[in-house]
Amino acid sequence: MISPTKFITGDGSEWLQVKKGGRAGYGKIDYLIENPTAFWAQLKRQKLTIISHRSRKEIIDAAENLVDSEPALHVGRYGWYDRQYVKPGDELPDRIDGLPVISDLPANARPWAHNGTIDGWQTGVAHLCEGQAIPTFVMSCAFASLILKFAPSISDNPFFELADDTSGGKSTMLELSASVFGKTEDWIDNWDTTVNGLEEKMALAADSILQLDEENHFMAGGGTKETLASTIFKLASGSEKARFGQDTARKFRFLGLSTANQPIASLLSTIEKSRADAVKVRLATIPVNAPFGCFDTVPSGEESSADAILAVKNLARDHHGHAAREFLGVLKGRYLSRSFGAELLKRKIARYMQEFRDLVGGDLNRPEGRLLDKFALVYAGGRLAYRFRVLPFRGIGPAVLQVYRRSQIATRSEVAGTRVSAIDEVMAFLERGKSQSRIVSTPADLTEKEFDDTSYFLKVDAGTKWALITSQSFRRAFGFRSDEVLADLHRAGLLRAKDGRQSQVRLRTSKSKDRVYQVQVPMDKAI
To answer: Are 458 and 438 in contact, with CB atoms under 8 Å apart?
Structure first.
């Protein structure tokens, strides 16, 4: 005897439950009417095979006579359902939030593979990320993606891009955050896509992180500035139907990380201003301009930033896939195992977000306030991961705050109505690199490595303070905007140069002269 029952899900879809031989399966009634082959295939995927015409007719006849529908929960993607997180390989409960579960999960999913140990991962992460702004930020992004559901103040998907025209380790930072979930190759996608091809990428990233590497692939593949802007709207809205100037219900919820040689906002500077401004509040640009690429200092035990990048790659390869599982496990144990736990979690996240807003200050009603909220969410994700003893180091707040301020400077935003000047950008760089700087009065006895590891030199000449920055350090700090910053400094009379923009100064005993940019530090600016 085949016994069907009709169910209706939250989106209004009607489903038919078919029971046969002690096994039950679900099929969409619309399929039964419009595409019967898809309906029977749906049941077969649930290991309920209906072959005979007689059995199929019996089901159809019974379905026609069904009047009443029972409520049910459709699980058609991976991610959050009420207080339950569903990931590949999980055995679904019969009920979630009191409703019977209709399982219709896709065959293609990002594997939550794991290798090594959580202890090995934590040891490596502490070594490579503690005291480092960008590495700490991307790690916090990974955990923030898992709590976005519980941050109702965030109405669209947070999206951040790491931008620089040098090989400063941008892609490697994606590997670092990918290690929270699984293998690098499973959790890093690329920009080699079309606007219409976004649907699958967004679906795979639901309630987790979407990482897109090398934005230049989009433009190289024939994408235009207008289609790139449309792509950002769709990603931020989590819907392939999103359009500029229209409110669209978010279909897929995720946090996005991207890499670019040139910030998307600068690429879009020639399109309609209202559209370009709309992109800016949806996409935060983070310059990879720390003294050592993505690193503020070379981690102890590593010879150079290149060695540190290699260490990140090795860590992501050898130890991955444990942190997200641990985080979700603690989340469930402390909060979501109780009926009122979701509300407690929302309050905790809201409190952490407010902590970050208070650190920054500013008016949340301004456009940049919308962007600030997304950085606040990242802070909340990192704070929870530390509180749950998944992230093994402190300093989440200072790191995220540094990245936020670099982002504001890089986009030449207006913060509290003041435009950031070139000298303020340079002063921010000098502050970041202070621990790796050297004060010189006479040539120093430095090895080649000691010279390369120095972020800048500080010299006082006739009562005037000068920052001496090598071309390599300057380009690493300001990337594609180096020439613009130098031109602004020159116009302001703060760049000393006899020929062009560089000077020749003897900084070390082993070499007669080195070429540097000499930037005057104004008297009202302190280092």
So the answer is: yes
